[in-house]
Write a structure and sequence with these properties.
Elements lengths: L8 H4 L12 E5 L9 E5 L4 E8 L2 E6 L10 H7 L7 E8 L9 H8 L12 E10 L2 E2 L5 H12 L6 E3 L7 H10 L4 E6 L7 E10 L2 E12 L6 E10 L2 E8 L5 H12 L16 E2 L4 E7 L1 E2 L5 E2 L2 E7 L12
Parallel strand pairs: 1-10, 6-8
Antiparallel strand pairs: 2-9, 3-4, 3-5, 5-6, 6-7, 9-10, 11-12, 11-14, 11-15, 12-13, 15-18, 16-17
Amino acid sequence: MAKASSKKPRDIAPIDPMPARVDPCLATLVGKPPKGPDWAYEVKWDGYRLAVHIEPGRVRILTRGGYDWTERFPTIADDARRLAVKTAILDGEAVVLNDQGRSDFGMLQRALGRVPSAVEAGAIVFFAFDLLYLDGRDLRRLPLRERRRLLELLVAGREGAVRLSEEVQADGDAFFSVACEHGLEGIIAKHIEKPYRSGRGEWWQKITCKRRDSFVVVGFEPSTVPGHLGRLLLAARRGNELVYVGGCGTGWSHELSRELRNLLESIGTKEPAVSLRRKNAIFVEPALVAEVEYRTWTDDGKLRHASFKGIRERADDATVREPVV
């Protein structure tokens, strides 16, 4: 392979059409970090996967499912306009950091206004971890190490709403252990010699400290406390159908319990999305997806020790976990 030039792509490259949207590269869940000099590691952020498109005269912020959420992330859009580029596509994660510097999905949702909170939208930070397009050149064919070099030239050292997701060159097992000790969700391992490939593959791997997945909310059971939530009823995908996988009754505060109850009552339905009969169940339209942390699956395909972590709109093409039976 020829040695990469130190000149910027805008000076040497032919013009490649800028993609209107790029399907994201997705990490495959594995049990332990891969080993070898061709792997680099990053913190696994707990937020919304976004692509920031910088174009002449505008910035677009697209979700993983391709929805335009630019208006929901005004500080990220404003900061992206200040980058020294004409055109670019940055791949990364929008997060809100808590007092310990860890990304907090619940705080992010409050900042976006889905559930009322004192967390402001200005607290949202976009951590960029890949650069897919830059000033007329499609970078997806380049190896990750070269894409990262160009990304670092663009955003390293910034402290605004657009920042660099730091890459760590370390022993994967040691880094994973430290991440878990500090209460992080996990780590991501990436093969530095691979191009950017949309979809899920082995070139990006995720190693989580606890099991955590997305499940469709199909109903709830009221709390014994009037106006509050007792238990979420959850479903997962099996083929083209949804099947009931159990419930979740912990993970929310007293205030959030009331807010979630009001939210779910607003989308109530008499036609359940799954085959389920429960005496006190109130069914809802399958429009929301709950982020749930759990220990394992039971033999009959139900979640064990499930705890609520956040909620998002199903329309954002969230990945819904298939049950393990």
